[in-house]
Amino acid sequence: MDSTDVSRKRAQLEGCHPGDDGRDVALHNLAVALYDRFQTERKVDDVNEAITLHRAALELRPSGHLQRSLSLRWLGLSLFGRYDSQGLVADLEEAVTLGRAALKACPQGHDDRGPRLHTLAHYLWKRFEKHDKMYDLDEAIELHRVALELRPSGHPHRYLSLHGLALCFSSRYDNQGVVSDLEEAVTLGRAVLEICPPGHRDRATFLYNLAYDLRRRFKKRAMMHSLDEAIELHREALALRPSGHLHRLSSLQELAICLLDRYDDQGLVADLHEAITLGRAGVELHPPGHSRRAECLRTLSRGIWAMSQRQVLMPESGRATSVHQAPLRRHLTNNADAASTFHEFSLHLWDKFRKQPAIADLDEAICLATYSLELRLPKHSDYAVSVDQLAVLVKERSQRIDQGTNSNESVMLGQAADNLCALRNCLRDRFRNQHAIDDLNAAITLHRYVLQLRPAGHASHPSYLHDLALCLVQRFHETASVGDLDEAISLEQNALELSVPGDPIYEASKDSLATCLQMKISAHISQASQASSTPPVVQKPRLPKLSIMSFLKRSKPHQITTQTWKSSSTLCDPDAQSKYKEI
Hints:
By secondary structure, the protein is mainly α. The chain has helices at residues 3-14, 23-41, 44-59, 68-86, 89-104, 113-131, 134-149, 158-176, 179-195, 203-221, 224-239, 248-266, 269-285, 293-313, 335-355, 359-374, 383-402, 411-434, 437-453, 461-479, 482-498, 504-531, 545-554. 72% of the residues lie in helices and 0% in strands. It starts with a helix and ends in a 29-residue tail after the last helix.
């Protein structure tokens, strides 16, 4: 369903007034069209309106109405869709209630009893995942079994019941640890794939879920063939989830974990390299601040740790040492472990660079240092350590850029700079919400690193100058440090010099510079008033922004510096302002 279909159904409803025959159908049809559009575009307004319309249709279909069960089902689906999107538990609870009512309206022998059983079972499984109540899961399994009996071999929806049962047994294994449940989940998963050949719209999901259960069977029983099969299934699922796919990250993560498991068991270097590549791809998919970012970093850190151990065990002489002569496994169960891994390997690469300078090692060291810093935000006990390490690395790279050697931005260095940009934005946003000055200070520090890595000549340099100026102005409002304001003025002046009139960044910097000048003049007047033994006769003036803008237009950017205050102090004189007024 697209917007055109929604518009058509809306027009049909508008032509069917309250009390007209068929209004319930018009309400239902528009609600379904809106819900289908929500499934594609994920706009919550669509599902909210769909719920309202389904409620209205349900009121027109009282108990005994032939279509009441249909309205109960669709209202439940819409509420469940909103629960998946917004996480409102009340929506899930109402969906379960409606699911029971819809099933009750379809007694034994009813054509729609199978779908109603399946839908209610799915809601109960989801409620189990939320609240961990075993009775919900047990009921879901029983409902799926009954639905499966109503969908014999050859039934077009048999695969849905098989898949639903597989999910339930997999969840019960997670909760109870009974191996027979895991084996049942694997058997059911295979049955789903058998009747959903290549080309089926949901095949990627079925491949992923079976691979997930096979990996767990390997972890439980050390059956290598299960892990090998899981890897092949994850590869196939990943191929069906190209760049931009909603679930691509899940496939990248699970395939990387499977390859790391096989590397731990078999020591195949190709598995390790591929796992790290996949881990990096997962990290790149979601910037700092994303809910799954830390999970991606932990997976990548596991590969980095294994690589660091391998380098320890494989001396520079090139003589291979068995990878099993020392323990390779490290259980990276939390962010602290991952941060330490990134920090340690960054130091290793830095030491290697100092002995034999290779710019690729330095760029990777910087990138890993940004990951470590990200997992050790301000107030973490090791935050200062990560900041100091990053400062050393950035200084070295900046010097090489200034010298004109290795000045091109590598892919790894670009990722590091992008990480810093995203992380500074997260810190600044957190400061706006929590008002912790440490977050703003950290954001300013990261701004400075970005400017060193992307100096004048980089396309985004003027924008970075402007962004740092805004942060400094923000800190000036908090601390009243005139030094921050002076630096902000200088940065905006530089941004104007490096940008072209008419560009958005030029206009933004010009407006910001005008504001900074006005604040500087106000601060100057305030200081003068405080220094005077007698109160000033004239009330402290507020310089019109119009005068500032006129002054800027009459001045070249390089003429506006922190040293021009004496010459421009006439702007503070109300009698002298008239010559700067717009004509």
